[in-house]
Design goal:
single chain, elongated, mainly alpha
Length: 267
């Protein structure tokens, strides 16, 4: 499949996702899901779509079928996320990944030169797909407070589908062992904060949020609250539903964001 066709198919899938038609969405993918559909395209799709209709599928390939390079890299990323959730990033080795996907250990290094490269690719995948996941759920014509509400809830939904992410993000691997990886994650965080700040500024202009909000400072604090929630969820071994905790988060944010006379997405 040539790249223009991939882009055209991807845009149709985004359109179906925004219309909220999960059955049609799945059927559209099932029609596309052939060996001629490159995994580079799959990795660019929203995360729930990738995990349900591609990564998990390629994790169970028949031993008689030899995976392509893009398929194998996707298997490695999926295994890294899974092992990070169940064993912790410190125990995610090339051998553990190979055992998880049923290949010899040297196969892993034919696709990634090092363990750090595997973690980097995994976080790159997470960063790209988080924003695509949120984009598919965004409603550009909606008021800014509703868009922020959907964005934050979508963030929790995305992470709840990939519990290995908070384990990886809060690990020594990121904070001490790999400065380049830390900088890359920092850029993703800044992009996230900038997007929230833009919604806060738009919401204030629309009369939805308080006029005296400081968008950048408030956006950074919102991200800190979300990260704290993710850390707690990870520490307690994912015992509670992450998405079910969102109403409480939004209720507390509402007291800060809304003016007394504003009409918005109240708890």
């Amino acid at each position: 499949m040539r790249q223009p066709a991939v882009a055209k198919t991807q845009e149709r899938i985004f359109t179906l996702a925004r219309r909220g038609a999960p059955n049609t969405f799945a059927q559209r993918w099932q029609a596309c899901h052939t060996r001629s559909c490159p995994l580079d395209f799959l990795v660019e799709l929203p995360s729930d779509f990738v995990s349900e209709y591609s990564l998990s599928t390629y994790m169970t390939d028949s031993p008689r079928q030899r995976a392509s390079g893009t398929e194998r890299r996707a298997q490695i990323i999926a295994a890294t996320l899974d092992l990070s959730a169940t064993q912790g990033p410190a125990r995610v080795s090339a051998q553990a990944i190979a055992d998880r996907i049923g290949v010899a250990q040297p196969t892993i290094f034919r696709h990634f030169p090092s363990r750090d490269a595997i973690f980097s690719a995994t976080l790159d995948w997470a960063s790209s797909n988080l924003f695509l996941f949120l984009r598919a759920r965004d409603r550009p014509a909606a008021p800014a407070d509703e868009r922020l509400h959907d964005m934050l809830r979508g963030h929790l939904e995305f992470v709840s589908r990939h519990p290995g992410l908070p384990r990886l993000l809060f690990s020594d691997r990121l904070h001490g062992d790999d400065p380049a990886l830390r900088k890359a994650v920092g850029r993703t965080m800044q992009r996230y904060v900038d997007h929230i700040a833009g919604l806060l500024q738009a919401g204030a202009a629309q009369g939805r949020f308080r006029a005296d909000l400081l968008p950048k400072e408030t956006a950074a604090l919102i991200l800190a609250l979300v990260q704290g929630l993710l850390l707690r969820w990870s520490v307690f071994d994912f015992n509670d539903s992450l998405v079910d905790q969102f109403p409480s988060l939004w209720r507390h944010l509402s007291h800060v964001l809304y003016a007394d006379d504003a009409m918005g997405v109240r708890p």
